[in-house]
Write a structure and sequence with these properties.
Rossmann fold; alpha/beta; 4 strands
């Protein structure tokens, strides 16, 4: 199937407010332009891919897919969609397929293959994302345990204040920003 002249949505995600999607979005826009895709919309968010329900823009993206507003979903890497493991990644892919949307990853070009090999590699990528996340969590917990053992404070200290104002979060804020 030719993908020239198709409409694509771009999804970029980082895990924390201290990070930025500025590294992902320009590269993905350029990749879409090189392939002749019209960028229908860009979805960005600062949310963990580990905890279900925290990716509000991903939910919005799925809703727009159900309305057939784009043909291709372009992501930086599969772990930007979810780190919840094989079941979650396969469910997302199945949902997008049902809506006629092909998921394409900038970092994993093998994803464009059709058939069972793509499904197998997607499952492996889902497993790797979950495994990497679990390992990172173990390292953080070990570091906290070392700090506690030395009597050092762990986490946000009483009376600590944010150095910068919190970003407006939520569906309505993003919806209103997009309408401007």
């Amino acid at each position: 199937m030719s993908l020239n002249g198709k409409r694509c949505a771009i999804y970029a995600r980082v895990s924390t407010e201290e990070q930025t999607t500025d590294n992902q979005v320009p590269v993905l826009k350029e990749a879409a332009a090189r392939r002749g895709w019209e960028v229908a919309d860009i979805y960005t968010e600062e949310a963990s891919a580990w905890r279900a329900g925290h990716q509000l823009e991903l939910k919005n993206l799925l809703m727009r897919a159900s309305y057939h507003e784009y043909d291709i979903l372009l992501v930086w890497a599969l772990d930007r969609l979810t780190r919840e493991g094989i079941g979650s990644i396969m469910h997302l892919f199945s949902t997008f397929r049902t809506y006629g949307v092909q998921v394409i990853s900038y970092q994993e070009p093998w994803l464009e293959q059709a058939g069972p090999m793509a499904d197998l590699l997607t499952a492996v990528a889902g497993w790797a994302a979950e495994f990497e996340s679990a390992r990172r969590s173990e390292r953080i917990k070990a570091a906290f345990a070392r700090k506690r053992a030395r009597g050092e404070p762990v986490g946000r200290q009483p009376g600590a204040k944010d150095k910068s104002p919190r970003k407006r979060m939520g569906y309505m804020a993003r919806y209103n920003d997009r309408r401007k």
